[in-house]
Amino acid sequence: EAKAAGRGTRVVFAPAMLAAQVAEASLTQDLHGAVGRGEVVVEYQPVVDLTTGRVDGVEALCRWEHPVHGRISPATFVPLAERSGLIDEIGAFVLTAALRDAEVWAVAEGRDVSVGVNVSAHQLTGGKILAAVPSGRRGRTQLLLEVTESTLVRADVLPVLDELRRRGVRVAMDDFGTGQSSIAALRVMPVDVLKLDRAFTVDIATDARAAGIVRAVAAMAHELGLPMVAEGIETTAQHHALRDIGCGLGQGFLLARPMDAAATGAFLTRSPLLVGAR
Ligand code: C2E
Ligand code: MG
Ligand code: MG
Ligand code: MG
Questions:
Q1: Torsion angles phi and psi, residue 254, rounded to 5
Q2: Which one of 85, 116, 240, 245 has the fewest beta carbons within 10 angstroms of its own beta carbon?
Q3: Structure confidence at residue 12 (pLDDT)
Q4: What per-residue string of b and e applies to 237-254 under the rule 16 or more CB within 10 Å gives b?
Q5: Could you tell me the distance, in angstroms and rounded to a whole number, from the CA of residue 159 to the centre of ligand 4?
Q6: In a 10 Å sphere around its CB, with 0-12 CB exposed, 13-18 middle and 19+ buried, how is residue 34 labelled?
Q7: Which candidate, 49, 53, 109, places its Cα nearest to that of 264?
Q8: What is d(CA 161, CA 116) in angstroms, rounded to the nearest whole number?
């Protein structure tokens, strides 16, 4: 912002910018070793069939329990982790935890469990992730890697994603509709699942334009044979609008909040997993 304001006003904003930079540097410093100290935890949010209400799988979402600042959202610290390269360590930790927890639930329920794990571009470049994921299917666990469209269109991650898909890993295009190249990316990058960004869900029941766009996206997903997941469902009106449009799956506080592993296991026992939903 200070930059955009031009040279004259730049100095006015400099202290605030400096403070922000110092805060970021300090937080990044704290992030070193956070995994080893047990400060990074994984929660899971169920993905629900919007027609039957049954649970289709879960998405792993990491949180940082900072010793001083308390719980910090991934929206805040994942960008720091990406800039500092720490995302590789954090991402590997989340992946391992998610695969381990999902297999426990799959065995307990005697069903297949799909577990979504968000991955950053940094984790995919150079193929480091290939060592961690020999197969997308382990026991009854099906791994779904959630990748944003800005990552998907990068030439250097394409071969890695191709190899992962050959190994049976499924790939979701996350936050669909917020990037600059959603449809172009869909054309060149074979993905298995489309996750519609929360921005569309917010307006769906009140804004005819938003509903029109989602209807068209649902038709496209159907045409391409891609299951579609709507993010951020908070009201019954949104749930019903999305279901009626033909969006098969959804996530959101209305259906279930992200919860720790123990609570997720209990939730899955109460709400039977849907088998063969895809
Ligand atoms: P995302 O993958 O799009 O995840 C969905 C976000 O929406 C999560 O935020 C979730 O808690 C939130 N959410 C779910 N239902 C609702 C709802 O009904 N209303 C609202 N307002 N929000 C809802 P969260 O957990 O803060 O994660 C934010 C983002 O951080 C994620 O967006 C993802 O891009 C990233 N992230 C999370 N965990 C990881 C990770 O392990 N690795 C990487 N690289 N990124 C991660
Ligand atoms: Mg995601
Ligand atoms: Mg998303
Ligand atoms: Mg999102």
A1: -60, -40
A2: 85
A3: 57
A4: ebbebbbebebbbbbbeb
A5: 25
A6: buried
A7: 109
A8: 15
Tens of pLDDT, residues 122-169: 999 888 899 888 888 888 999 999 999 888 888 889 899 999 999 999
> Phi, psi (5° rounding) for residue 59?
-115, 130
- % of the chain exceeding 70 in pLDDT: 92
The complex's ipTM works out to 0.97
* DSSP-derived 3-state class of residue 96: helix
Q: List 48's β-bridge partners, or say none.
A: 55, 250
Ligand nearest to the CA of 119: 1
Both tokens assigned to 132? 């961690």
Report CA 45 to chain centroid distance, whole Å.
10
Whose Cα sits closest to atom 38 in ligand 1?
Answer: 61
Centroid of chain to Cα 97: 15
Residue matched to tokens 């984790």:
123
pLDDT at position 187 is: 82
- Nearest-CA residue for ligand 1 atom 20 is 232
Report pLDDT digits (tens) over 104-117. 999 998 989 999 99
Nearest ligand to the CA of 62 is 1
Question: HEC states along 105-171?
Answer: HHHHHCCCEEEEEECCHHHHHHHHHHHHCCCCEECCEEEEEEEEHHHHCCCCCHHHHHHHHHCCCEE
Amino acid at position 1, single letter: E
| CA-wise closest residue to 247 among 232, 227, 263, 271 | 227
Q: Residue 158, Cα to own-chain centre: how many angstroms?
A: 18
